[in-house]
Design a protein that fits this description.
The chain is about 60% helix and about 5% strand. By secondary structure, the chain is mainly alpha-helical. It has a single domain (about 10-95), classed as Winged helix-like DNA-binding domain superfamily/Winged helix DNA-binding domain (Arc Repressor Mutant, subunit A), CATH 1.10.10.10. The model has no long low-confidence stretch (mean pLDDT about 90). It comes from Halomarina salina.
Length: about 100
């Protein structure tokens, strides 16, 4: 039997390391794993400032862990969700007790 640890290649562990190196990225991914949210809702539920949450969302988007669920043109009430890649990454973080 192959463990999840052995299944992950180096790039997956690099991604996991990237997420867990920031409490803001951990908060965003964890909240979005529960369902789609706006940055304001994530900030309210995690007790972090909106600026930190917004920055973390953009960082996670660049790595395809989080996606915008509304059009790019919408400026207010932007809803974000977790991608399949984000769900797999978050699942590994939780199963390995890394956060």
């Amino acid at each position: 039997m192959v463990s999840k640890r052995q299944k992950c290649d180096g790039s997956d562990w690099d991604l996991i390391s990237y997420v867990i190196s920031s409490r803001y990225r951990i908060a965003v991914l964890g909240r979005l794993d529960e369902g789609p949210l706006t940055p304001t809702r994530i900030a309210d539920r995690s007790d972090f400032r909106l600026a930190h949450i917004s920055r973390a969302i953009q960082q996670l988007r660049r790595r395809h862990l989080v996606e915008l669920l509304v059009s790019e043109e919408q400026r207010k009430g932007r809803v974000y969700g977790i991608t399949d890649r984000g769900t797999l990454t978050w699942s590994t973080i939780q199963s390995e007790n890394l956060c």
